[in-house]
């Protein structure tokens, strides 16, 4: 099976500009491709996961990835898939986020010996002269065509700012710049980026002539069986940074995916052989729980390493079979968290990170979804003493599968 055929079989490809040419490039290790990542937070998250896995797959097949960090485009903000305008970030915040991205990407991409590149579009976008840019690329873009693009359509009702309207031009200019500087002949991205990516291929052709070969391919968005983007929990995004989402919580996120989604996720995100995955197609009932364990272990290993994946799996198995809390995530309380010698259950749930707010904590208790050391907590006024939380602490549970060991520091 060729590299391209495997991408198709795994359900990764959504749209392509020229399938035969793209097949030729990726199958023969001739693709110099880029994927852009705007540093809108200090960690990559599950939403970036598909792109990182694709870069790894193609690099393993001899192709050369360029990881483009959007230090420049982040100053504008991508309107794709949004109904409101992104919050403006300072240069200092963007630069900090860029450094965090660089470290995390090295887990997926081999940057040694020129096998891959990491570049920042701030290096060229921030030095552009506005009038010169208008004269150079302005004539290459039709406003009528831009307004028909999906990334702008959903913003038109609430109002699309001129700032955001420029985003397509900026992303297109990136491709134009990378094509000339580094011989980048392909751009990959999420399916919601299709219009922006076509803008880049068109700009290259119009500026450099019809023989300038530049291609685009979009990756299928990671959606669950309900059509919603995967990678978010009640308390927010599932991050790749272990300090923001612990390896245990990361493992548990994938362990808890719906039955209808598990095989799709294994196919799209893991590096298990397709023959092995195909055998799972007939699995049902308890076998799907085994499939979920396989998914959770493989992805945790990919992001956090095999040792952390083993710890998370052993901890989860022990927890759900014997109630053992040895390696589950721990929340440490300080003296300041107590009023006198006590802490109430709503504050305890909030401080443990199991809920994002006290109103959510109240709801969880009232609905009977909270337990401490295996005993249901039904009273929203229940309190716990400092002594009760000293030593080994207590195991606090919200719902069926969300646990924290709570101790006094």
Largest sheet: 6 strands, mixed
Count of runs of 4 or more consecutive helical residues: 19
Please state how the strands of the largest beta sheet are arranged side by side: 1-6-5-2-3-4
What is the general shape? Answer: globular
Q: If you compute it from the alpha carbons, what radius of gyration comes out, rounded to the nearest whole angstrom?
A: 24 Å
DSSP strand tally: 15
Fraction of residues in helix: 40-55%
3D structure, described in words:
The chain has 19 helices and 15 strands. With 409 residues, the protein is α/β, with parallel strands linked by helices. Helix 4 links the parallel strand 3 and strand 4. Helix 12 crosses helix 16. It is globular, with a radius of gyration of 24 Å. It starts with a helix and ends with a strand. 38% of the residues are buried.
Outline the secondary-structure elements:
Blueprint: H1 3-9, E1 13-16, H2 19-27, E2 32-37, H3 46-60, E3 64-69, H4 91-105, E4 117-120, H5 122-125, H6 130-137, H7 143-148, H8 150-153, H9 162-165, H10 167-182, E5 186-190, H11 194-208, E6 215-219, E7 232-233, E8 236-237, H12 247-255, H13 259-269, H14 274-278, H15 286-304, H16 306-322, E9 330-333, E10 342-344, H17 345-352, H18 358-366, E11 370-372, E12 375-376, E13 383-385, H19 386-389, E14 394-398, E15 402-408
Parallel strand pairs: 2-3, 2-5, 3-4, 5-6, 9-15
Antiparallel strand pairs: 1-6, 7-8, 10-13, 11-12, 11-14, 14-15
Helix pairs in contact: 10-11, 12-15, 12-16, 13-15, 15-16, 17-18
């Amino acid at each position: 099976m060729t590299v391209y055929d495997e991408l198709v079989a795994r359900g990764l490809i959504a749209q392509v500009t020229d399938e035969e040419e793209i097949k030729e490039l990726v199958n023969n290790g001739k693709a110099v491709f880029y994927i852009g990542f705007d540093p809108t937070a200090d960690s990559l998250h599950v939403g970036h996961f598909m792109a990182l896995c694709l870069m790894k797959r193609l690099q393993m097949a001899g192709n050369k990835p360029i990881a483009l960090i959007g230090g420049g485009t982040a100053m504008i903000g991508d309107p794709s898939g949004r109904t409101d305008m992104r919050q403006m970030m300072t240069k200092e915040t963007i630069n900090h986020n860029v450094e965090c991205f660089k470290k995390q990407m090295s887990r997926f991409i081999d940057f040694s010996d020129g096998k891959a590149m990491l570049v920042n579009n701030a290096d060229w976008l921030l030095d552009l002269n506005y009038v010169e840019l208008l004269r150079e690329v302005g004539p290459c873009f039709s406003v009528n065509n831009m307004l028909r693009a999906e990334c702008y359509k959903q913003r038109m009702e609430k109002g699309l700012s001129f700032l955001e309207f420029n985003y397509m031009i900026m992303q297109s200019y990136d491709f134009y710049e990378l094509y000339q500087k580094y011989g980048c002949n392909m751009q990959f991205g999420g399916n919601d980026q299709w219009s922006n990516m076509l803008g880049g291929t068109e700009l290259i052709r119009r500026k450099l002539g019809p023989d300038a070969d530049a291609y685009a391919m979009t990756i299928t968005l990671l959606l669950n069986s309900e059509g919603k983007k995967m990678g978010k929990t009640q308390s927010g995004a599932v991050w790749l940074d272990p300090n923001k989402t612990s390896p245990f919580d990361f493992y548990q996120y994938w362990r808890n995916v719906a039955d209808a989604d598990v095989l799709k996720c294994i196919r799209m995100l893991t590096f298990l052989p397709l023959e092995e995955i195909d055998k799972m197609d007939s699995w049902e009932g308890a076998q799907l729980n085994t499939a979920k364990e396989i998914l959770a272990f493989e992805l945790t290993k990919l992001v956090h390493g095999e040792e952390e994946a083993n710890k998370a799996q052993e901890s989860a198995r022990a927890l759900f079979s014997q109630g053992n809390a040895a390696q589950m995530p721990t929340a440490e309380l300080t003296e300041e968290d107590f009023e006198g010698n006590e802490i109430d259950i709503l504050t305890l749930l909030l401080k443990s990170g199991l809920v994002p707010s006290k109103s959510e904590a109240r709801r969880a208790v009232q609905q009977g979804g909270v337990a401490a050391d295996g005993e249901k907590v039904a009273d929203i006024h229940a309190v716990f003493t400092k002594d009760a939380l000293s030593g080994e602490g207590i195991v606090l549970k919200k719902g069926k599968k969300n646990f924290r060991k709570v101790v006094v520091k």
